[in-house]
Amino acid sequence: MTSLLKLMGIMALFFASTFIVANAMGWLSLDQIESWLAQAQSLSAFTVVVAVVFLLFLDLFIAVPTLSIMMLGGYFVGAQLGWLAAFSGTLLAGVCGYALSALYGEKLVNLVVKDDAKRQELRAQFRRHGILMILLSRAMPILPEVTACMSGISRMRFITFLLAWCAVNLPYTFIAAYAGSISTLENPMPAILTATALTAFFWIGWGLLKHFLLKTPVSTQ
C-alpha cells in the first residue's frame, strides 16, 4: 500500500472508530436522529435546518449517517430547504477539516510516515489525484472528511479544494434532499433507490481510483 493510502486508511479507521463508539454508547443512532428532527419540525422549519447543518458539521468529529440525514432533511422540510441545510453542513465540515489539517496535520504525517522520501511521495500523489479523490469521496460517509483533511495536509490550494468540494457536494446534497422530499413512510423507495445508486456509483469510482494508485508509480519531482 502506498504511503498516501496508508495515511488515509489510518484516518478512516479513526473516523470509523468514532461511529462505533457512538453507536455502542447509544448516541446518534438513525432512529434517535429521526426523532430529533421530528421534534425540530414541530418547532419550525428553521429549527430542522439548523439541526441538519449541525449534525453534518459534527460528522467532521464523529462519523454520522450523512446520506440518511440529508434525506431526512428533505423529508421534513422539502427539497429546497433540505438541500440548503445539507450543503451548508457539508461545506462547514469540509472547510473546517481543511483548515484544521493545514494547521496541525503535519504532525500526523510525520508520526505515520517516518521516511522523508515517502512523505514527499505522499504529497505528490495527492497533488496529482486529490481533485479526483474529492470528487469520488462520497463512496462512503468517512471519505469526504478524510479527503478534506488530506487537502489541508498536502497544502492543496484552498480555491481548488473548494471548487472540487462544491462540484461533488452541490449535486449530491440536492439529489439526497430531493429523494427524501418525495419519499414517505408508505413509499420509501425513492430514498432507498437513490441511496443504493449513489453508493454504487461512488464505490465503483473509488475502487477504480484505488487500483490505479496502487499500480502507478509517482514522481516526487
TrEMBL record:
Q: Does the keyword DNA-binding apply?
A: no
| Residue stretches spanning the membrane | 7-30, 42-69, 81-105, 158-179, 191-209
- One GO CC term of this entry? plasma membrane
InterPro entries assigned: DedA_domain, VTT_dom
Chain ranges of the VTT domain: 64-181
Q: Name one Pfam family in it.
A: VTT_dom
**Which UniProt keywords are present, listed alphabetically?**
Membrane, Transmembrane, Transmembrane helix
| Protein known as | VTT domain-containing protein
Which organism does this record belong to?
A: Enterovibrio coralii
